[in-house]
């Protein structure tokens, strides 16, 4: 801003100098113009005019002096402003250089501080990582101490409070724990025999001898029974399914058994549960009410399939053989014998052919109507229970899906109420979800396959009935037409005298 003000002052000074020069030239020209008439008018001798002339000259001289003074003043101001402008520019350059140096110094300082901050952050991250590692090692060590103390406590060994409660005394604590563990392992590695009680298979408690193979297996001998022992909870033992009796007796007599039968367990505190073998009823029962509904539908579908198969078997026959037999009898003119053959057969095809034979002497349209009526009458038993079987095959997987949704809802209710800590609480809902789906597919797949096969069997029987009836009708009508033509030719010959004469 100061630079702009100095430039404006400089322009004003230069403009004033130019204006002064122009005014000087104008005054000089006016003096010359005015002096010429004066010279021309000097000829008369007039004192008044002479005085006016001298006054005018004096005024011209004063004006020129004033302009010169003003010009000199402006020149002085110009020189002063120019000097001040040069001083200002020099000061501005020095200040700019100083500011540039300061900015560079600040930039270098900022870079150095950024580098230092990065170094400090790296050191902080490394310190945090080391602290996390130390905390993790400390937690692992505390867990190891707790497990070791619990294990020793299970075997009747208590850690002294002087070692247990002392802080920053890890070497002494580790040394004590390892010493006690080694002595315990040495003691447990040998066969230990002591008197005690255990439970028999029938649930009765027996007093006898306990033979422990370390902390992973045990045997029990008593007058009531012997065998391999498993944890029953609370530090007690029970006989496991009558196994290991011979090994227990041999070990009690300090003898080496030929075959060592034993049950290995992890801990004496956790009871070993006897796993029962699952039966079909228990599997279905795990699916809940929907599982039993699906099984009931499957039983109904199986019963209907058997009934329909029996109906189709009873209404089917060797169609080709029966048709050929009836056609042969018709060719021989034994219509009554053919009817008797149809009546003796109990199949649907024989009944349709019987209807056909009883109306052979009718016209063709009426005969075909009778055939179709008989086929429709026999279609009822053939199609019986077919739709019901297919409906059950369609409903069974939908019931399985319903059971799946019900089981999942029950599972989520258990999770909401008790959490996910105990998987046994969730097993019931999951069993309903899976077992119902399995039962639905087990019922639906065979029902759908057998229902489709039986429907195809029924369609084949109806097709064979229609084909056999139409075949016999066409053969009989063709034979009747040929007989009528032959009779007509015979009558024509007998009535023609020319033919008779020949």
From TrEMBL:
<keyword id="KW-1003">Cell membrane</keyword>
<comment type="similarity">
    <text>Belongs to the exbB/tolQ family.</text>
</comment>
<feature type="region of interest" description="Disordered">
    <location>
        <begin position="35"/>
        <end position="54"/>
    </location>
</feature>
<dbReference type="InterPro" id="IPR050790">
    <property type="entry name" value="ExbB/TolQ_transport"/>
</dbReference>
<keyword id="KW-0472">Membrane</keyword>
<keyword id="KW-0175">Coiled coil</keyword>
<feature type="coiled-coil region">
    <location>
        <begin position="64"/>
        <end position="137"/>
    </location>
</feature>
<keyword id="KW-0732">Signal</keyword>
<feature type="transmembrane region" description="Helical">
    <location>
        <begin position="429"/>
        <end position="458"/>
    </location>
</feature>
<feature type="transmembrane region" description="Helical">
    <location>
        <begin position="385"/>
        <end position="409"/>
    </location>
</feature>
<keyword id="KW-0813">Transport</keyword>
<dbReference type="InterPro" id="IPR002898">
    <property type="entry name" value="MotA_ExbB_proton_chnl"/>
</dbReference>
<feature type="transmembrane region" description="Helical">
    <location>
        <begin position="290"/>
        <end position="311"/>
    </location>
</feature>
<dbReference type="GO" id="GO:0005886">
    <property type="term" value="C:plasma membrane"/>
</dbReference>
<dbReference type="Pfam" id="PF01618">
    <property type="entry name" value="MotA_ExbB"/>
</dbReference>
<keyword id="KW-0812">Transmembrane</keyword>
<dbReference type="GO" id="GO:0017038">
    <property type="term" value="P:protein import"/>
</dbReference>
<feature type="signal peptide">
    <location>
        <begin position="1"/>
        <end position="20"/>
    </location>
</feature>
<feature type="domain" description="MotA/TolQ/ExbB proton channel">
    <location>
        <begin position="349"/>
        <end position="466"/>
    </location>
</feature>
<protein>
    <submittedName>
        <fullName>Biopolymer transport protein ExbB</fullName>
    </submittedName>
</protein>
<keyword id="KW-1133">Transmembrane helix</keyword>
<keyword id="KW-0653">Protein transport</keyword>
């Amino acid at each position: 801003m100061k630079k702009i003000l100095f430039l404006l002052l400089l322009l004003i000074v230069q403009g004033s100098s130019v204006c002064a020069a122009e005014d000087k030239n104008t005054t000089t020209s006016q003096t010359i113009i005015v002096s010429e008439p004066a010279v021309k008018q000097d000829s008369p001798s007039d004192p008044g005019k002479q005085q006016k002339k001298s006054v005018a000259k004096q005024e011209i001289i004063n004006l020129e002096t004033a302009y010169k003074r003003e010009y000199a003043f402006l020149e002085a101001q110009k020189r002063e402003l120019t000097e001040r402008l040069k001083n200002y520019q020099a000061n501005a350059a020095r200040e700019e250089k100083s500011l540039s140096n300061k900015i560079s110094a600040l930039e270098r300082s900022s870079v150095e501080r950024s580098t230092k901050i990065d170094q400090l952050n790296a050191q902080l991250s490394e310190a945090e990582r080391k602290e996390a590692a130390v905390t993790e090692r400390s937690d692992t060590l505390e867990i190891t101490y707790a497990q070791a103390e619990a294990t020793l406590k299970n075997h009747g060994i208590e850690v002294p409070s002087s070692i247990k409660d002392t802080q920053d005394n890890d070497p002494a604590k580790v040394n004590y724990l390892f010493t006690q563990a080694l002595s315990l392992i040495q003691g447990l590695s040998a066969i230990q025999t002591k008197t005690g009680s255990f439970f028999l298979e029938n649930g009765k408690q027996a007093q006898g001898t306990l033979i422990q193979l370390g902390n992973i297996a045990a045997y029990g001998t008593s007058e009531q029974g012997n065998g391999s022992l498993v944890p029953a909870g609370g530090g007690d033992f029970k006989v496991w399914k009558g196994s290991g009796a011979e090994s227990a007796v041999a070990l009690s007599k300090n003898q080496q058994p030929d075959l060592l039968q034993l049950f290995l367990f992890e801990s004496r505190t956790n009871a070993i549960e006897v796993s029962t073998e699952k039966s079909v009823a228990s599997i279905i029962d795990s699916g809940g009410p929907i599982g039993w509904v699906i099984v009931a539908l499957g039983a109904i579908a199986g019963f209907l399939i058997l009934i329909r198969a029996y109906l189709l078997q009873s209404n089917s026959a060797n169609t080709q053989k029966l048709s050929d037999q009836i056609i042969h009898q018709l060719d021989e003119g034994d219509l009554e014998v053919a009817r008797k053959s149809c009546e003796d057969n109990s199949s649907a095809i024989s009944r349709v052919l019987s209807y056909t034979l009883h109306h052979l002497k009718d016209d063709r349209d009426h005969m075909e109507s009778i055939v179709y009526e008989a086929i429709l009458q026999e279609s009822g038993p053939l199609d019986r229970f077919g739709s019901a079987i297919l409906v059950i095959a369609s409903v069974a997987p939908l019931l399985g899906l319903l059971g799946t949704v019900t089981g999942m809802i029950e599972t989520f209710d258990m999770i909401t109420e008790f959490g996910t800590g105990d998987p046994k609480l969730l097993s019931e809902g999951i069993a309903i979800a899976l077992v119902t789906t399995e039962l639905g597919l087990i019922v639906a797949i065979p029902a759908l396959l057998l229902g489709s096969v039986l429907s195809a069997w029924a369609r084949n029987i109806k097709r064979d009935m229609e084909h056999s009836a139409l075949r016999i009708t066409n053969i009989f009508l063709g034979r009747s037409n040929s007989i009528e033509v032959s009779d007509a030719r015979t009558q024509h010959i007998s009535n023609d005298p020319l033919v008779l004469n020949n």
